[in-house]
Specification:
about 170 residues; mainly beta; Alpha-Beta Plaits; SH3 type barrels; 2 domains; 5-stranded antiparallel beta sheet; 3 helices; elongated
Length: about 170
């Protein structure tokens, strides 16, 4: 019976591994996301793997030979626990496929925070301070209410600088 499995890939070779596995007749899925990265002082929109170092493959290890996966360019082999290939829940893959955009394999990012959520700031001048979400403004920023110097202030910071409060 076919299941989804995770394939461990070489660093930054996920797309090469996916292409080569696809050429060998394997059914693969590499979920990717759009992200904004900074290089040489400029911001760029890039598409990168959602799970760096991994891609998913659908196969039946009882009827299909999995040994070519280890020797595929870009791939290191199936993820295994106790010597057995680890099955990835089909529901997870179906959710990722359902969240795909018009671009093949690119997954739509859902909002991580809701207004009123309590968060803590991970980096920057307000590190460690508790705050609450006012709104998400764009893809990379959130607006927070921060108690500072006896007043409640609105602060706009990167989404990557906050985490849910414990």
């Amino acid at each position: 019976m076919e299941h989804w499995y995770a394939v461990h890939t070489k660093a930054r070779d996920e797309m090469l591994a996916e292409e080569n596995l696809h050429r060998q007749g394997f059914h693969t899925f590499l979920p990717r996301i759009k992200a904004t990265r900074r290089r040489r002082g400029r911001w760029y929109q890039v598409i990168e793997p959602l799970f760096p170092g991994y891609l998913f493959i659908r196969l039946d290890p009882l009827t299909q030979d999995t040994s070519p996966i280890r020797s595929t360019r870009g791939a290191l082999g199936l993820v295994r626990f106790g010597g057995e290939p680890a099955v990835v829940p089909a529901e997870l893959i179906e959710q990722l496929i359902a969240a795909a955009t018009d671009e093949p394999g690119v997954v739509r990012q859902e909002h991580l925070f809701q207004p009123g959520d309590r968060v803590r700031i991970l980096s920057g001048p307000f590190t460690g301070l508790p705050a609450s979400i006012v709104a998400e403004t764009g893809e990379e920023r959130v607006q927070l209410l921060l108690e500072l110097l006896g007043r409640t202030n609105k602060v706009l910071i990167s989404r990557h600088q906050v985490a849910p409060a414990a």
